[in-house]
Design a protein that fits this description.
heterotetramer; A mainly alpha; B mainly alpha; C alpha/beta; D alpha+beta; A: 11 helices; globular; C: Alpha-Beta Plaits; Rossmann fold; six-stranded mixed β-sheet; three-stranded antiparallel β-sheet; 8 helices; about 15% strand; disordered C terminus
C-alpha cells in the first residue's frame, strides 16, 4: 500500500513542481504565467506527436532518452518520500546506487547530445560533464555527512529520525541543506547555474543538449528532468522538515515541503541573475566546501 | 583504494569492512581486466578500420561500425562505474567499505575515508566525462576527416571477442552477487569475516535486480516509443544547427575542446601548455592555437627513461603476432580460467 | 532585495485581460470597414494613395494581406468609403478571406478537432524572420512579455524547431533565407502548422516585387493562419492564435 | 538651398540635410584618395560613406565625410581611370572596410590590398556552393579548435545572421559575421518605387528605427527640394524620434537582464518599453511611429488633450523607471555579468568609426544631434551621454543616461509645442544634385544619401544604417571572451540585421 502510494506520488507529482516554479516566477514578474499543469499538457501533446531524427544520429541518440528516463525511474525506487513513505527498495549502500543511476542518466543524455554532431550540443555536453564532475563531490560529501550523522548507509534510514540529527548537529544540517540546494540547482539546470527560459544556444547547459529531440523522446527527457528535480528535492525537503507525524501527516508534510521547495526555487530564480559560465565551478566547489565543513562538524561531535 | 580500506579496517578490528574492501578490490581488478580489454579491443578495431587513432580526426564511426560502437560504449560506461555494468558492482563494494569505515572506524581513518569517498566520487565524475568524450569524439556525430577512407566494420571474430567481453561486463553487472559469493573464500583469507555476514550480499542482489530493472525499463521505454510512433510521421533530416545550409564536419566539438572547461578548473594541477599564433590584428589572416597537458609524471620522471625502453620494445614487437585482439583474448581466457580454478 | 520588492510592488499586475475590451488608442487603425456604395464613379483617390496597391476598384476591394494599415486611403477618400475601425482582430484562415469588400470580415476559425485536441493547451512556436524589418519580430517578442503573457494560454516560443508545433514566418522571405526557412520547416515533427505574420509574409508588403525576395511565404509552406498588419498589434497576434486553437468563438469581428 | 561653400578645392562642404550640385563635388585624381583618407582619419572625421559613382563612361569613388569639429559634411570624389581598381584605404583606416567590400560586391571594382575582401551580403547564387568559394571563413588552426556556427536562425525571436566562431573550449578566438540574409533590395525599391511605396520602404528598412529612417529619408527629400519644415512638425518629429530611442533603450535594458537571467529586470523593463511604444501609438496610430512623418512635415498633430495625456503617462512612468534602473544597477549578480564583459578600447572605436551608443560607451562623444544638428535639434540641445570602459556595463549606462535625457527633452517639447502648420508640401527636387541627411537614431547615425539625375529623378539612394558601421564592434567585443557571453555582448549593441542588409 505504502509502496503503491510512493510510486503514485513519484510518478504523478513531479511535473507539478515545474508548474509551481513557473507560477512563482510569474508572480515576481507581474504576469499570470502558464497554468500550473502546463508540463502535463506539454507531455501529453509530445507523446502524441511524430518525430524527426537527424541523419547524423545512430541508435545512441534514440537510446539516450530511454536509458536516461529508466535510470531516473529506478533511482526513484530508492528514495523515501518524506517520513511516511519509505523507499520500495532499501539496502545498505543504496545511496551509492542512487547517485550512480543519476550518473548513468547523464551519461546517456551526453552521448545522445554528442551523437547529433552539433557544436552547440557538444558544448552543452562539455559543460554538463564539467559541472556534474564538480557537483559530484558535494553530493557525496553530503551523503557521507548524513551517513555519519545517522550511522546508516541507506536513504530510508538516513532520512528517518532527522529530528535527532538536528538536535545533535544543527549547524551542520543547515550547511548540508545549503550544499544540497546548490547541487540541486546545478543538477536541475536552474538559475544561477543555467537558465531554462532564455533560449540561447550558446549559453545553455542542459537545454542545448536536447535541441534535436522531438516528440515522445522529448517528452521522456522533460519528464525525466522533472523526476530529477523531485528526487533531489525529496532529500532537501526531508532534511528541512524533519518533523515526525502519522503516515498521512507525513505525506501531507512532504507534499507541502516540496511545494515550499518549488517556491524557494522560484524565488531564487527571480532574484538572482545567472552566473558567468567560468564562475560556476567556483560555486560548485564552494558547495563541496560546505558539505566538507558539515562532515567536519559531525565528525567532531560524533567522536567527542 | 579498496585494499587500502581493507587493510586499515583489519588493523582497527573491523573485519566486515575489511571484507568489503578486499572484495571490492579483487572484483575491481577483474573488472578492469574485462572492460579495459574491451576498450583496447575496440580501440584496435577503430585503428584498423580508420587507419588513425588521433581522436580529433575521428568521429561518426557509430554509423559505420555499430557493433564496435556498442561494445565501446558498454566499455566506456563500465569503466566509468555506471550501473547496470560490472564497474559499478566493484565500485559499489569499495564505496560500501568506505561508508562502513565512515560510520564505524576511529576518527583518523574515518576522516581519511570521507576524503577517499569524495575523491572517488570526483574521479568517477571525471572518468565518466573522459569516456563520454572519447565515445563522442570517436563514434558519434559526423566524420571529421571525410577525405579519408570510409571505415568498415571489423571482421566477425573481432566483433565476437568484443561481444563476449561486453556481455561479461553486463553479466557481472546484473549477477554481481553470485560472483561475490564465489569470491568469499579468497576474501576470507584476508579477513576473518565472511562476506555472507556483511549486508553486502543482499544489497548486491538488489543492485543486480535493480540493474535488471533499469535494463528492462529502458527496453520497455524503447518499445513504447516505437509503439507510439508506429503510425506517426517519422522523418529524418539534418541535425538542427540554426538553419545553416552548408554545415561542415569541422563544426563539431573536438575532444580537446570538450575537455577544455575541465582542464581550466584543474589548471593548477594539469599545467596546460599553450601555443598561440596569429595576431590580434583587426583582420587576422591566420590563426592557430594548440594546448596540451603533458603528464607531469611523464614530463618530470619517466620521460628520459621511456625513450630508451621504447626502442627496445619496438625491436621486440617485430616477433609478436600482428593482431592485438587475439593476444588480449588469450590473456582474458587465461584470466577467467585462473579465476574459475581458484574459485572452484 | 528591498529594492526588488519595492519595484515589484510598483509594477503591480501588468498582464492585460484577454479578450481585451478597452479601447486601444484614439488613432489606432484596426480592421477596416468598407462602404463600397459610397464610391463615386471614376474616383481613384484611395487606390492612388495606397503604397502597396492593396486596393481594387469597381467594386471597391481592399486586400488586407497587402495592407500596411497606414490610413492613407482613408485620408484620401473624399466620401469616407474606407474607415479603419478600432477592432484589433485581423487574422484569417485563407488568403481569399483577406480581400475585404463591404461585407463582414470572415475572421479566422479554429483548426479541426484533432489538431485542436493536440495543440489546444500546448502550442510551441518557432519564429523565423525572413527579411523581417524587425517590426513583426518585435511584436512577436512582445507577446511573451508580462503585458500580453502568451504563456498563460499554453503557447510558447521555443528555440529548436524539433520542439515546435508551429512555424511563425515574418518578412517577405528573402532569397537568402529560403533554404534556412525550408530547413526549419522540415525540422519540425508532424503534425505542424504555419503562421504568416505581417504584410511582408503574406504578400511581400512594401517589398512586393523586390528582386531579392519572394512576395511573402512561398507556396511550398501550407499556411494555416494569416495575421494582417504592418506589424500586427500583439493583441491581433494573440487573437489569431487563440482563434486557431478554438479558444475564441465568433467568425466575424465585433464579438 | 545652401549651395556648396568651397572651403578647400579638395572637397565641397555643406550642412546636414543640405544639397549640392554634383558638379560642385570636386573630381580629383585617384592618387589623392590616400592623402584625403589619411587626413580624414587623422582629424578624426566620420566616414559617412564611400560610394561608387557612375556617370556615363566616367567612374568615380565618392567620399562623404562628417567633421564634428565644425559641423560640416563634405564630399569629394576620385576618378577611376583604366582598370577599375584603387589602392585600398582599409589598411590604414579600418572604418572603410565594409564600404570597400560593398563596392567590390556591387560593381566588381577592386580595392587592392584590402585585408578581407569578400561579399558583404550573401547572394542567391552563392547558396548553391555553400560557403566554400565566395564566402571563405577564417579557420583557426590547431588540434582542439572547433568552429561554432550560429545562425542564420537564432534561438530567440531574432533576425537572421550567421556567426562563425572559432573556439577553443569555451574561449572565443575569433568571430566572423556573415550577414545578408535579410537583403530585400530596399535601396533598389527606394530608387524605383512610387513615392508612397518609397516612404513605406523607408519605414521598413529597420522596423525598430522606423522613425529615424523615415526622418532621414524625408530630410533628404526636403533638402533636395529646399523645403522648410514647419516648426511644429519639427518638434513632433523630435518627440517621436526620442520616444523611439527611449522605447528601444528601455527594451534593450530588459533584454540585457533577460540574457543574464535576471527575470525581474527583464519583466519590468519589457513592460515599460511597451508603455513608450503605446505613446507612439497614441501619436501616430502605430506602436513604431509609422505613418507619422512624411516629406514636408507630419501627418498627425499633438492636440492639447493628447499632450496632457502623454505628459500624464510620463509623470506616472518616470519614477517607476528610475526605481527599476536602481534595482538593476544595484543587483550584484547583474553587475558581475555586465562589468568587464565585451570590452572595446576607445582607440578601436575611433579607428573603426563606430557610431552611436557603441562609440559613446567607449568615451567617444559622437552624436549627430549635437555634432550636426538638424530639425528641432538646432534649437533644443540634448547633452551627449558618454561612458568610459567600453564594456556591456558602459553600454547599459549610456543607454540609461540617454533614456533620462531624452525623457527630459520629450517633456520640454511637449510642454512648449510651437504653433503652426503640420506640413508644407515639398516642391520639385533639384536636378543633378547630391544630398546627405544624418539623423541620430537610437543605434547611432542614420545616413540617407540621395543623388538626382538631370530630370530630378532619384538616380541613387544609398542608406547607411548605424549597424553597418558598428557590426565589427561585436567581433572586437567577443575576442578572447567566453562563448557563453557572446549573446550578452551582441545584445548590448543590439544592431540591426535588416538595416545592414537593406
Amino acid at each position: 500500500m505504502r509502496a503503491a502510494l510512493h510510486l503514485l506520488l513519484f510518478l504523478v507529482f513531479p511535473p507539478l513542481l515545474m508548474g509551481v516554479i513557473n507560477r512563482v516566477k510569474a508572480a515576481f514578474a507581474g504576469r499570470r504565467g502558464p497554468p500550473v499543469l502546463q508540463l502535463y499538457f506539454d507531455l501529453w501533446k509530445l507523446l502524441r506527436k511524430g518525430a524527426v531524427y537527424s541523419t547524423t544520429t545512430t541508435w545512441i541518440f534514440r537510446a539516450g532518452p530511454v536509458v536516461s528516463l529508466a535510470a531516473t525511474l529506478v533511482a526513484g525506487l530508492l528514495m523515501p518520500l518524506g517520513g511516511g513513505l519509505p523507499a520500495p527498495f532499501a539496502f545498505p549502500g543504496d545511496v551509492i546506487l542512487f547517485a550512480y543511476l543519476l550518473a548513468t542518466a547523464r551519461f546517456a543524455t551526453v552521448l545522445a547530445a554528442l551523437d547529433t554532431g552539433s557544436s552547440f550540443e557538444g558544448m552543452g555536453a562539455s559543460r554538463e560533464v564539467t559541472f556534474s564532475a564538480l557537483a559530484e563531490p558535494a553530493l557525496f560529501l553530503s551523503i557521507a555527512a548524513l551517513a555519519l550523522a545517522r550511522q546508516s548507509i541507506s536513504w530510508t534510514s538516513i532520512l528517518s529520525g532527522q529530528m535527532a540529527a538536528w538536535h545533535l548537529f544543527g549547524p551542520a544540517m543547515a550547511m548540508l541543506i545549503g550544499a544540497l540546494v546548490l547541487v540541486a540547482l546545478a543538477e536541475n539546470s536552474r538559475i544561477p547555474f543555467d537558465d531554462p527560459t532564455t533560449h540561447l544556444e550558446l549559453t545553455m547547459v542542459h537545454e542545448v543538449m536536447i535541441l534535436d529531440h522531438s516528440g515522445p523522446d522529448l517528452a521522456m527527457i522533460l519528464y525525466g528532468a522533472s523526476l530529477k528535480l523531485f528526487l533531489l528535492g525529496a532529500i532537501v525537503v526531508r532534511l528541512a522538515f524533519p518533523f515526525e507525524a502519522s503516515v498521512p501527516g507525513h505525506v501531507a508534510l512532504f507534499v507541502a515541503g516540496l511545494l515550499v521547495y518549488a517556491v524557494v526555487m522560484g524565488v531564487i530564480e527571480s532574484t538572482f541573475a545567472r552566473l558567468r559560465m567560468d564562475r560556476i565551478p567556483q560555486i560548485l566547489i564552494a558547495a563541496s566546501v560546505f558539505a566538507a565543513l558539515a562532515v567536519a562538524v559531525i565528525l567532531v561531535r560524533v567522536n567527542a | 583504494m579498496g585494499a587500502g580500506v581493507g587493510l586499515v579496517a583489519l588493523s582497527t578490528g573491523h573485519p566486515a569492512v575489511a571484507a568489503l574492501g578486499f572484495a571490492g578490490a579483487l572484483l575491481h581488478v577483474t573488472n578492469h581486466a574485462l572492460f579495459k580489454s574491451l576498450l583496447f579491443l575496440a580501440a584496435g578495431a577503430v585503428g584498423k578500420a580508420s587507419g588513425t587513432l588521433q581522436i580529433d580526426r575521428l568521429g561518426g564511426l557509430a554509423r559505420r561500425m555499430p557493433r564496435t560502437a556498442l561494445c565501446f560504449t558498454v566499455g566506456a560506461a563500465a569503466i566509468s562505474g555506471l550501473p547496470p555494468l560490472n564497474g559499478f558492482v566493484s565500485e559499489f563494494l569499495v564505496y560500501l567499505a568506505l561508508l562502513g569505515a565512515i560510520v564505524s572506524l576511529p576518527v583518523v581513518p574515518q576522516s581519511a575515508a570521507v576524503l577517499a569517498f569524495a575523491v572517488l566520487a570526483c574521479v568517477g565524475g571525471l572518468a565518466s566525462a573522459c569516456f563520454a568524450k572519447a565515445t563522442g569524439a570517436i563514434f558519434l556525430g559526423a566524420r571529421r576527416s571525410p577525405e579519408e577512407a570510409v571505415p568498415q566494420e571489423v571482421p566477425a571474430e573481432m566483433q565476437l571477442s568484443m561481444g563476449v567481453l561486453a556481455a561479461a561486463c553486463l553479466g557481472i553487472g546484473l549477477a554481481g552477487s553470485t560472483l561475490i559469493a564465489g569470491l568469499d573464500p579468497v576474501v576470507r583469507q584476508f579477513s576473518a569475516v565472511s562476506l555472507r555476514e556483511t549486508a553486502a550480499l543482499g544489497g548486491l542482489t538488489l543492485v543486480g535486480a535493480l540493474s535488471a530493472a533499469l535494463v528492462g525499463a529502458a527496453f520497455a521505454a524503447w518499445l513504447s516509443v516505437r509503439w507510439l510512433l508506429r503510425r506517426r510521421t517519422v522523418k529524418t533530416g539534418p541535425t538542427w544547427v540554426c538553419g545553416y545550409p552548408a554545415v561542415q564536419p569541422s563544426m563539431q566539438t573536438t575532444a580537446s575542446s570538450f575537455a577544455q572547461p575541465l582542464i581550466l578548473v584543474f589548471k593548477n594541477i594539469l599545467l596546460p601548455v599553450r601555443h598561440q599564433s596569429g595576431s590580434s590584428a583587426a583582420f587576422p589572416a591566420a590563426l592557430a592555437v594548440e594546448e596540451h597537458c603533458p603528464d607531469p609524471i611523464e614530463r618530470f620522471l619517466l620521460g628520459p627513461g621511456v625513450t630508451g625502453g621504447a626502442v627496445a620494445f619496438s625491436v621486440a614487437r617485430q616477433a609478436q603476432p600482428k593482431r592485438v585482439q587475439s593476444y588480449v583474448l588469450a590473456i582474458f581466457i587465461t584470466l577467467v580460467g585462473l579465476l574459475w580454478w581458484r574459485l572452484g | 532585495m528591498l529594492q526588488l520588492f519595492k519595484t515589484r510592488f510598483e509594477q503591480g499586475k501588468a498582464t492585460v485581460a484577454f479578450p481585451f475590451v478597452e479601447k486601444l488608442a484614439e488613432r489606432f487603425r484596426g480592421l477596416p470597414r468598407l462602404l463600397p456604395n459610397l464610391c463615386k464613379d471614376g474616383c481613384r483617390a484611395c487606390a492612388d494613395a495606397c503604397p502597396t496597391e492593396a486596393i481594387r476598384l469597381a467594386p471597391l476591394r481592399l486586400d488586407l494581406g497587402a495592407c500596411l494599415f497606414c490610413g492613407l486611403c482613408e485620408e484620401a477618400c473624399p466620401e469616407g468609403a474606407i474607415r479603419f475601425g478600432e477592432e484589433y482582430e485581423t487574422s484569417f484562415r485563407t488568403r481569399e478571406a483577406m480581400v475585404l469588400d463591404g461585407a463582414e470580415a470572415r475572421l479566422a476559425t479554429a483548426l479541426d478537432a484533432r489538431m485542436r485536441s493536440l495543440f489546444g493547451r500546448s502550442l510551441k512556436l518557432r519564429s523565423v524572420a525572413a527579411g523581417d524589418c524587425s517590426g513583426c519580430a518585435a511584436e512577436l517578442t512582445a507577446l511573451g512579455n508580462v503585458v500580453f503573457d502568451l504563456g498563460r494560454f499554453g503557447i510558447q516560443f521555443v528555440a529548436s524547431p524539433r520542439h515546435a508545433d508551429g512555424l511563425v514566418i515574418s518578412g517577405p522571405v528573402t532569397a537568402n533565407m529560403r533554404a534556412a526557412l525550408k530547413l526549419a520547416y522540415d525540422a519540425m515533427p508532424a503534425p505542424k502548422i504555419v503562421i504568416a505574420v505581417g504584410a511582408c509574409a503574406i504578400s511581400g508588403g512594401p517589398f512586393r516585387g523586390s528582386p531579392a525576395a519572394s512576395d511573402g511565404v512561398p507556396p511550398d509552406f501550407p499556411v494555416d493562419l494569416y495575421v494582417a498588419g504592418c506589424p500586427p498589434h500583439p493583441l491581433a497576434l494573440l487573437d489569431g492564435l487563440l482563434r486557431l486553437l478554438g479558444r475564441i468563438e465568433g467568425a466575424t469581428n465585433g464579438a | 538651398m545652401s549651395a556648396g561653400i568651397p572651403k578647400a578645392a579638395a572637397e565641397c562642404a555643406f550642412p546636414n540635410g543640405g544639397a549640392v550640385s554634383l558638379e560642385s563635388v570636386p573630381a580629383l585624381p585617384l592618387s589623392a584618395l590616400t592623402a584625403a583618407a589619411t587626413e580624414a582619419r587623422d582629424r578624426q572625421k566620420g566616414l559617412i560613406a564611400l560610394l561608387p559613382l557612375v556617370e556615363g563612361a566616367a567612374s568615380r569613388l565618392l567620399l562623404l565625410l562628417s567633421d564634428p569639429s565644425n559641423g560640416h559634411l563634405s564630399a569629394s570624389s576620385f576618378r577611376l581611370e583604366g582598370a577599375k581598381e584603387w589602392p585600398s584605404i582599409t589598411p590604414f583606416w579600418s572604418a572603410a572596410h565594409l564600404f570597400e567590400r560593398e563596392i567590390f560586391e556591387r560593381t566588381g571594382w577592386k580595392p587592392i590590398g584590402h585585408p578581407w575582401l569578400k561579399a558583404v551580403r550573401r547572394h542567391r547564387e552563392l547558396e548553391a556552393d555553400g560557403d566554400a568559394p565566395a564566402h571563405p571563413f577564417l579557420r583557426a588552426e590547431g588540434e582542439g579548435v572547433h568552429e561554432v556556427a550560429v545562425g542564420p536562425i537564432h534561438a530567440g525571436i531574432i533576425e537572421p545572421g550567421h556567426f562563425r566562431l572559432q573556439c577553443f573550449g569555451e574561449e572565443v578566438l575569433h568571430l566572423e559575421i556573415q550577414l545578408g540574409y535579410q537583403h530585400r533590395a530596399a535601396e533598389h525599391l527606394l530608387e524605383t518605387g512610387t513615392p508612397a511605396r518609397r516612404l513605406a520602404v523607408a519605414e521598413s528598412i529597420a522596423g525598430d528605427s522606423a522613425v529615424g529612417h523615415v526622418l532621414a529619408y524625408c530630410t533628404a527629400l526636403e533638402g533636395l527640394a529646399g523645403t522648410k519644415v514647419p516648426l511644429r512638425a519639427q518638434a513632433i518629429r523630435g518627440v517621436a524620434l526620442e520616444l523611439e530611442r527611449i522605447a528601444n533603450h528601455v527594451g534593450d535594458l530588459g533584454a540585457l537582464c533577460n540574457d543574464v537571467g535576471f527575470l525581474p529586470g527583464a519583466a519590468y523593463f519589457g513592460r515599460m518599453r511597451g508603455n513608450f511604444l503605446n505613446l507612439l501609438l497614441e501619436i501616430s496610430g502605430s506602436r513604431f511611429g509609422r505613418s507619422l512623418i512624411v516629406p514636408g512635415g507630419v501627418r498627425f498633430d499633438i492636440p492639447p488633450d493628447l499632450q496632457a495625456r502623454l505628459l500624464g503617462t510620463l509623470d506616472r512612468d518616470e519614477p517607476q523607471l528610475e526605481d527599476m534602473a536602481k534595482l538593476v544597477f544595484s543587483t550584484p549578480s547583474v553587475l558581475s555579468r555586465f562589468e568587464g564583459t565585451g570590452t572595446i578600447k576607445s582607440a578601436a572605436a575611433v579607428e573603426f568609426g563606430f557610431v552611436g551608443p557603441t562609440a559613446r560607451a567607449c568615451g567617444v562623444p559622437r552624436d549627430v544631434r549635437s555634432d550636426h544638428p538638424s530639425g528641432v535639434f538646432q534649437f533644443s540641445h540634448i547633452p551627449v551621454a558618454v561612458a568610459e570602459g567600453g564594456d556591456v556595463m558602459a553600454r547599459a549606462t549610456v543607454r540609461w543616461l540617454e533614456v533620462l535625457r531624452s525623457l527630459r527633452f520629450v517633456r520640454e517639447q511637449l510642454e512648449s509645442l510651437p504653433a503652426g502648420a503640420l506640413r508644407r508640401e515639398p516642391g520639385a527636387p533639384r536636378r543633378s544634385a547630391l544630398t546627405v541627411a544624418l539623423v541620430e537614431g537610437w543605434r547611432g547615425a542614420i545616413a540617407h544619401v540621395v543623388i538626382t539625375d538631370e530630370q530630378g529623378a532619384v538616380a541613387r539612394h544609398k542608406v547607411i544604417d548605424p549597424s553597418f558601421h558598428n557590426w565589427f564592434a561585436v567581433t572586437l567585443a567577443v575576442r578572447r571572451a567566453q562563448v557563453s557571453d557572446f549573446p550578452l555582448c551582441n545584445k548590448s549593441f543590439n544592431l540591426s540585421y535588416a538595416g545592414h542588409d537593406l
